[in-house]
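Need a sequence for this fold. Nothing fancy.
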């Protein structure tokens, strides 16, 4: 199938925009790749230190026989359900390496925090910048420079983007990513959301809420909604950085273990003495566009409008929200997975999963097929599903076939929507994004009276006191737009604001038109309430949200792609820009480790530029 002209044009403008930075990146990659292996290049004391802890046979292989050495970077901890299964992965990888005359070492561990645990707490203000900490920890792990390739063990929200950014600093190394798969389906996401809304209204207490949450999040594996963690895995498949079909295979079984072993075999087939496929060349402009398309076609996490901008920058590639918007105009929405539908990721996988989506996008001309991947068969291999052979000694891939549930997955010829699930909004309030795939069509345009909050806790208090409902009743059109500012990277680290969804959903459920405008994040859990998020520039940078006042009329138009305050132009230009309240600044600066992140907050660039603290 011929490539769609929009995919081609967006790719070409990214190539042109990135010519200088990408060229510099590839020059550095080539210079590093042309060196001798570390065990032959570095001093004897360096080599002795690097392998002193190895078993004797492994040491002999890598030093005397000049065998290849794999560096494993792991995000394992048993606080995160998605990472708990990874405890055994290094031994699986080491055993395969030995069988193939190679060795493997755990090069290092990276921190991995759970946004579900920290949601609504001060610790959530570390969340976004934990991505950059993970990237730096990955770089520290690989900086021993004794590796012929790397395997990345990680799944969740900031962990995969951080691992990617860090790995791309070592772009000369072939790199394979290994996930752990989703937990079994428990209480449905829809039923969980209902209990949350009941709790927000005081209709059920803590005991009932905790019971519901515990039945939803109940076992090792990723959460089953299509949030940032599971969007990560979809994008890695589309980028060709997994073993094909790995993303949503359940943890703990023989198939999952064999796929982890296959990751080691795959890596050893793409080192310099074989079919060399370093990550810095795999992740090129076409690869990044394929990831963007996969995100849009599945209604994935809005966090990736920040994270994948940063990932691309790490490879010398410059993308922006205009690129996402241009692609979203033509990429069809093929999946309905919660919060964009009722199905969870296990049902998504059963219906055909990532392989079905990739096949449909390739066949319809929405993805680049001429890309380098970690597999010899290229991106077409990612349209198949893996299974154990009858002898349970290997893997066999087969065609996925038709969708087994057209309420979850549809072909590109009959999509849920002819456009993608994300929309760029811009106007005199700045630039922002909205996840329209989860929002009812009658809520795509909201014009209402603004109520301005300086913290999410203030909005929650206003809901509990009944103030928000009274404001909705007073408005002639029953429309209320809540503005929550000082939530950007420089203000407080840009926390996710998930706790705002239940109360706003309650108001919407009563028939009121409500919406949220914020320079914070809502992420992959963005639901049915219209939310213009990531407003950039943020208020703390002097952005327009710092000028909004209670009673202003704001229009959020997801059809026209606008976000504006309806104030006379001359009045708006003269209106002063509020400053971040000193008490709020002081409160955001200390406690829960936030003191250590002051430099990151100070140096962070805008959300649209990736909110990077390292540029």
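Here you go.
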């Amino acid at each position: 199938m011929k490539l769609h002209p929009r995919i081609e044009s967006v790719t070409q403008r990214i190539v042109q925009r990135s010519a200088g930075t990408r060229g510099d990146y590839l020059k550095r990659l080539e210079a590093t790749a042309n060196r001798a292996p570390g065990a032959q290049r570095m001093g004897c004391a360096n080599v002795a230190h690097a392998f002193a802890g190895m078993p004797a046979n492994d040491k002999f292989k890598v030093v005397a026989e000049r065998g290849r050495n794999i560096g494993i970077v792991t995000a394992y901890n048993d606080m995160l359900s998605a990472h708990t299964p990874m405890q055994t992965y290094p031994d699986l990888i080491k055993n395969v390496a030995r069988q193939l005359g190679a060795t493997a070492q755990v090069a290092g561990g990276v921190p991995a925090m759970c946004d579900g645990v920290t949601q609504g707490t001060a610790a959530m203000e570390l969340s976004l910048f934990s991505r950059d900490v993970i990237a730096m920890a990955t770089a520290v792990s690989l900086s021993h420079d004794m590796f012929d390739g790397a395997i990345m063990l990680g799944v969740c929200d900031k962990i995969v983007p951080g691992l990617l950014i860090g790995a791309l600093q070592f772009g000369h190394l072939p790199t394979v990513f290994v996930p752990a798969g989703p937990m079994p389906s428990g209480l449905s996401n829809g039923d969980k959301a209902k209990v949350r809304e009941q709790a927000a209204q005081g209709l059920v207490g803590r005991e009932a809420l905790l019971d519901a949450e515990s039945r939803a999040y109940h076992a090792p594996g990723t959460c089953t909604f299509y949030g940032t963690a599971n969007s990560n895995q979809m994008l890695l498949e589309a980028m060709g950085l997994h073993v094909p079909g790995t993303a949503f295979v359940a943890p703990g079984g023989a198939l999952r273990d064999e796929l982890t072993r296959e990751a080691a075999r795959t890596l050893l087939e793409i080192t310099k003495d074989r079919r060399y496929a370093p990550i810095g060349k795999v992740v090129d402009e076409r690869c990044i566009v394929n990831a963007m398309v996969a995100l849009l076609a599945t209604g994935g996490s809005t966090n990736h409008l920040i994270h994948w901008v940063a990932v691309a920058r790490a490879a010398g590639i410059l993308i922006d929200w205009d690129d996402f918007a241009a692609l979203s105009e033509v990429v069809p929405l093929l999946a309905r997975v919660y919060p964009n539908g009722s199905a969870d990721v296990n049902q998504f996988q059963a219906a055909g999963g990532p392989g079905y989506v990739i096949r449909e996008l390739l066949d319809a001309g929405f993805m680049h097929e001429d890309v380098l991947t970690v597999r010899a068969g290229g991106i077409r291999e990612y349209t198949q599903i893996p299974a154990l052979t009858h002898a349970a000694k290997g893997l066999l891939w087969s065609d996925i076939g038709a969708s087994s549930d057209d309420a979850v997955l549809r072909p590109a010829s009959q999509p849920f929507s002819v456009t993608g699930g994300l929309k760029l909004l811009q106007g005199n309030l700045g630039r922002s994004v909205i996840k329209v795939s989860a929002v009812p069509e009658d809520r795509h345009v909201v014009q209402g009276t603004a109520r301005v909050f300086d913290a999410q806790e203030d909005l929650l208090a206003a809901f509990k006191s009944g103030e928000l409902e009274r404001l909705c009743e007073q408005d002639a059109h029953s429309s209320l737009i809540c503005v929550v500012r000082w939530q950007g990277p420089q203000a407080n680290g840009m926390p996710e604001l998930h706790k705002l969804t239940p109360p706003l959903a309650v108001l919407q459920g009563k028939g009121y038109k409500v919406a949220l405008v914020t320079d914070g994040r809502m992420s992959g859990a963005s639901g049915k309430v219209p939310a213009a998020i990531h407003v950039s520039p943020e208020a703390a940078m002097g952005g327009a949200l710092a000028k909004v006042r209670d009673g202003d009329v704001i229009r959020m138009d997801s059809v026209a792609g606008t976000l504006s305050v309806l104030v006379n132009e001359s009045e708006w230009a003269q209106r002063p820009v509020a400053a971040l309240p000193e008490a709020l600044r002081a409160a955001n600066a200390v406690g829960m480790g936030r003191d250590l992140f002051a430099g990151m907050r100070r140096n962070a660039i805008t959300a649209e530029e990736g909110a990077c603290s390292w540029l």
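For context: The chain has three domains: 5-34+68-184+219-399, 35-65, 422-609.
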